[in-house]
Design brief:
- The structure is a single chain.
- The protein has about 260 residues and is α+β, with helices and mostly antiparallel strands.
- It has helices spanning about 1-10, 125-135, 140-160, 170-190, 190-195, 200-225, 230-255; strands at about 15, 30, 40-45, 55-60, 65-70, 70-75, 90-95, 105-110, 120-125.
- It has a five-stranded antiparallel sheet with strand order 2-3-8-5-6, with no helix packed on it.
- A hairpin with a 6-residue loop joins strand 2 and strand 3.
- The two termini are about 45 Å apart.
Length: about 260
């Protein structure tokens, strides 16, 4: 599959500070540090022939604006009345016309708070080729995460429906839940996952909550395999983990 995808995505150009291809285009970076969120601006010249291709880039929480020769052609920034300053995990596609060939493009990324650095690489190519390129780059991570997810589901099914928890303790169940959460978190960490959901907040919340619940499930699994199961430390850890989830949720509702 990866070999086939490589043939399809051969015309996708990677642009940015990461040395991904030999066809690197020089990018000028300008940073403005602000108390409410750092402002990053990346400028580079478009190729001489764009022919309906796109500029695409992945952002996590960052608002974005795209200018071609000073004219704003794309904007995704939360308004002042927005419930959250984050735009979630999303892909931004800017379709180019033939009149944009060779022009200067400026991509402005605005952070929701200070100290956060954006992903500073971009894709140039046809939209379907960019999709394939992103999937190819994340194929191994997705495959491993999918395998972990399937193993977790099998273990959960086996413990609950086959053994019915009569001949074993609940340790395998907690380990199955931990495996499933680990797989979900790993999948949502890949940029390819952001292509699967039209709502950019879905992957963001799946990522956050799977990461926060995962340690609790793992600690409950460890509790089952240790002889000292009634130690108060287990209870403190579970309540601390639950408190973090509740506080994080409340702060998000209040847009803090």
């Amino acid at each position: 599959v990866v070999i086939i995808l490589s043939l399809v995505t051969g015309n996708v150009l990677h642009i940015g500070s990461e040395n991904r291809t030999t066809d690197e285009i020089a990018v000028k970076e300008t940073v403005s540090f602000e108390p409410d969120g750092d402002d990053f601006c990346y400028e580079f010249s478009l190729p001489e022939t764009v022919d309906g291709r796109c500029i695409a880039f992945n952002t996590a929480h960052f608002g974005s604006e795209v200018f071609i020769d000073g004219e704003c052609v794309y904007r995704c920034i939360p308004g002042k009345d927005s419930r959250t300053k984050s735009t979630g995990f999303r892909w931004n596609f800017v379709r180019l016309t033939e009149s944009d060939s060779g022009k200067l493009i400026s991509i402005r990324l605005v952070g929701p708070y200070s100290g956060l650095k954006p992903k500073d690489y971009y894709y140039f190519g046809y939209k379907h080729e960019i999709y394939m390129a992103v999937i190819e780059e994340n194929a191994l991570s997705l495959a491993v995460s999918a395998e972990i997810f399937i193993v977790g589901l099998f273990l959960l099914f086996y413990s609950v429906f086959i053994l019915k928890l009569k001949y074993t303790d609940s340790g395998p169940v907690f380990f199955a839940v931990f495996s499933i959460l680990l797989a979900i978190w790993s999948i949502t960490e890949t940029p390819a996952c952001d292509l699967m959901f039209s709502d950019s907040y879905v992957t963001m919340y799946l990522n956050y909550y799977s990461l926060m619940i995962m340690p609790i499930a793992f600690m409950m699994f460890l509790q089952q395999i240790y002889t000292n199961k009634e130690n108060i430390g287990w209870i403190i850890f579970r309540f601390a983990g639950a408190a973090i989830i509740v506080i994080r949720t409340v702060l998000d509702i209040l847009s803090v």
